[in-house]
Amino acid sequence: MEKKTCITFFCLMSFAVSTELVYGVQRPGEESVDRVKLFIFGDSYADTGNLPSSTSSSWKQPYGITFPGKPSGRFSDGRVLTDYIASFLGIRSPVPYEWKKLEEKWIETGMNFAYGGTGVFNTLVDQPNMTAQINFFQQLVQENVYTRNNLSSSSIVLVSLSGNDYGTYFAKNGSLEGLEAFTKSVIDQLVLNLKRVHGFGVQKVAVTGIGPLGCLPSITASTSYQNCSDTGNNVAQFHNQLLQQNLHRLNNETGASSVFVFLDLYSAFSSALKFKQNHPENLTFKNGLKPCCLGVNGEGSCGSVDKSGTKKYVVCENPKQSFFWDSIHPSDQGWHAVYSALKRSLPSLV
Ligand SMILES: *[C@@H]1O[C@H](CO)[C@@H](O)[C@H](O)[C@H]1NC(C)=O
Ligand SMILES: *[C@@H]1O[C@H](CO)[C@@H](O)[C@H](O)[C@H]1NC(C)=O
Ligand SMILES: *[C@@H]1O[C@H](CO)[C@@H](O)[C@H](O)[C@H]1NC(C)=O
Ligand SMILES: *[C@@H]1O[C@H](CO)[C@@H](O)[C@H](O)[C@H]1NC(C)=O
Ligand SMILES: *[C@@H]1O[C@H](CO)[C@@H](O)[C@H](O)[C@H]1NC(C)=O
Ligand SMILES: *[C@@H]1O[C@H](CO)[C@@H](O)[C@H](O)[C@H]1NC(C)=O
Prior knowledge:
hydrolase activity, acting on ester bonds; alpha/beta; single chain; hydrolase; SGNH_hydro_sf; six-stranded parallel beta sheet; binds 2-acetamido-2-deoxy-beta-D-glucopyranose; lipid degradation; Rossmann fold; 350 residues; 11 helices; two-stranded antiparallel ribbon
């Protein structure tokens, strides 16, 4: 990844430049004081570059080929959920915590504390869990980088929890019998995190539900990307049900009915995935459940190369025809479709 040594904020990193061009809605002469700020916690569905560039595939080819044209630390060929929510709010996509400079221009639209691969609990990925991410945020609040006034007047929190806790649970040989208790512990921890974030004065906290895990290419590969797994989808739906109950309770307890907002990724993914079925004539998502970028011959994964530098992956001709970019993550076009489906619940954020 190239680093540039320009003086202005506009060329700190090449990807930041491109993002600014697309989301550059900074109106001339506009006061920055009450600019909407977005703070993000969570995982790869929201991370825009916090993982180390030396090791993460999100910083390697072919990630980023659609936008900005090269790897940008996102697990997508282009944008991720964060970028679409930021564009909805009319702000530049917030700077990743790892790249921040504590100057107004860097931090005025908020900050992204999400790290790919993480959950509320520690996962198989050695990166900050959500508690640790909130600790980073708390540190900045204690340093008055963001004042209580900044946070209560115009700030929005986005929490993306997409299933890494469950992936870890099953990888560690968790049983189906123990799943209900484990789900409750995930939700309990998530609720603690949400309350803590709200405690900083933020008046809107949006939380994603989990998408249809059973439809992820990593799961459907065994059926040649034909059939979703009911078990995986049930895991997601049980989590989502508990989460929604808890959000109702939290909203009730805070006495304001709409502080905590549920973003229904399950329905949004499902309607995007049904698009092909309902519009077979359309080229959009022609590839169904099959990801655009995948490992060859059951070895490797999107972005992997062997010791001699030979690619161990293939990329589809037109990423716009795939809902999924790799075996876990939606493509730029996939996220666009999800965003379109979510738009109905987004106005409650502002
Ligand atoms: C926070 O608000 C103050 C005014 O209350 C403003 O001067 C400052 O720029 C804001 N900070 C950020 C990071 O936007
Ligand atoms: C988060 O990570 C820290 C450091 O690894 C650990 O001590 C803590 O228990 C974790 N929190 C949760 C809720 O798992
Ligand atoms: C998983 O756990 C069950 C019961 O706890 C045990 O019988 C089984 O051998 C374990 N499997 C693996 C692969 O560790
Ligand atoms: C997928 O599901 C259909 C209908 O339920 C079934 O007929 C088919 O055998 C399944 N395919 C695979 C590869 O499991
Ligand atoms: C919270 O729930 C109680 C009991 O169901 C109800 O009486 C009260 O009006 C609710 N408060 C809010 C703010 O929704
Ligand atoms: C099919 O895709 C084109 C653009 O790719 C779009 O303009 C059109 O509205 C789509 N058709 C349907 C039925 O959504």
